[in-house]
Specification:
Blueprint: H1 4-15, H2 19-24, E1 31-32, E2 45-46, H3 49-52
Parallel strand pairs: 1-2
Length: about 70
């Protein structure tokens, strides 16, 4: 028998648009952003953390301020 949270998660997943649908719903992407599942957003500019000086390891950091 499924717990309440398992049932909720199943219903929530059914009501969520797929990742591809969510990405397609955004009309303009500036950065190409690689996502954990291998999907890459359809932007113009690769997201290069080294270019922005973002360290690979943020362990111990308390605040990340990214201006837009």
């Amino acid at each position: 028998m499924l717990s309440f949270s398992q049932k909720h998660n199943q219903v929530h997943q059914l009501n969520q648009p797929s990742l591809a649908e969510q990405i397609a719903a955004v009309p303009f992407w500036y950065h190409k952003i690689p996502l954990p599942d291998g999907t890459v957003t359809p932007g113009w500019v690769p997201l290069d953390a080294e270019m922005y000086g973002i360290p690979e390891d943020l362990t111990g950091k308390r605040v990340l301020d990214v201006g837009a």
